[in-house]
Amino acid sequence: MQIKDMLKRLKGIDKEMDEKENMSEYWMDEEHQDFEKAARYEAEADVLYREVYELSDIIANTIVSITGNQIDKITARMMLSNKR
């Protein structure tokens, strides 16, 4: 998979994670309070967070590899973070 495709996938997962977090906050709100729904959305967001972290790690490693170690992993992660 190319970096471009991975970034596109990362963007989609990141957006979905934000939606789950927003829904969790919505159900935690005093007006709509439903702790079970909030916990379910939070758990789904946690799973997506792990996917984001793993995919970000793969992308950073790919950047390091492509550049022949001229860009280290920390810099690659910072670049990725700025891109996002």
Nutshell version of this structure?
With about 80 residues, the protein is an all-alpha fold.
Give an account of the 3D structure.
- 82% of the residues lie in helices and 0% in strands.
- It is built from 3 helices and no strands.
Q: Low-confidence runs (pLDDT<50, min 5 residues)?
A: none
Can you give the mean pLDDT? 94
How many distinct helices?
Answer: 3
Backbone CA Rg: 16 Å
Helix content: over 70%
Percent of sequence in beta strands: under 5%
Based on DSSP secondary structure assignment, what is the total number of beta strands?
0
Determine the structural class based on helices, strands and strand pairing: mainly alpha
Classify the oligomer: single chain
**Major beta sheet summary:** none
Topology summary:
Layout: H1 3-28, H2 35-66, H3 73-83
Helix pairs in contact: 1-2, 2-3
Spell out the key features of this protein.
84 residues, mainly alpha, 3 helices
